[in-house]
Amino acid sequence: MKRALLQIKKYWLINLVTFIISLVVGMVIFCLMYFLRGKTLISAVDGIAVGAVSVLFIGLLCWMAHLGAFDTFAFGFKQLGSMLFAKDARRDGNYADYRDKKFENRNNSSFNFVAIIAAGLILCLALLVLEIVYNASL
Fold first, then answer.
1. How far is the C-alpha of 85 from the C-alpha of 121, rounded, in Å?
2. Which of 41, 80, 91, 98 has the most CB atoms at less than 10 Å from its CB?
3. Residues 6 or more apart from 116 whose CB is under 8 A from it?
4. Distance CA 8, CA 69 (A)
């Protein structure tokens, strides 16, 4: 029981850190655009839009990778590397074995992409608020 609770705490701590890092990355992109383009409301809206969309798309790409969308490319590059640089080429067998092994590993891993997508959605909410303020000031 204690081991399960420790694993749950570890899972939530990892997701919390991932969420905070994602928010910081979005805010750094926002600050770069805001301060480099001039401190106006339209540059704030543009900066938060670029930051929000960037973080959201990174989260969606992580989700796609978790679902196995890039397994074909990973297997191909791994096979190419093993043929070029290693003596034991094709040690993983065929693609079906590789895919099954990756699927088992994915079932045992955490869903870190949820925290990144949540951070992107929070930044999109901030974008919506800034857009309403900008439209009200016109």
1. 43
2. 98
3. 18, 19, 22, 55, 58, 59, 62
4. 27
Mean pLDDT of 79-97: 73
d(CA 27, CA 34): 10
* Cβ(59)–Cβ(117) below 8 Å: yes
**What's the longest Cα–Cα distance across the chain?**
67
Token pair recorded at residue 135: 């439209």
pTM of the model as a whole: 0.78
- List pLDDT tens digits, range 51-71: 999 999 999 998 898 888 888
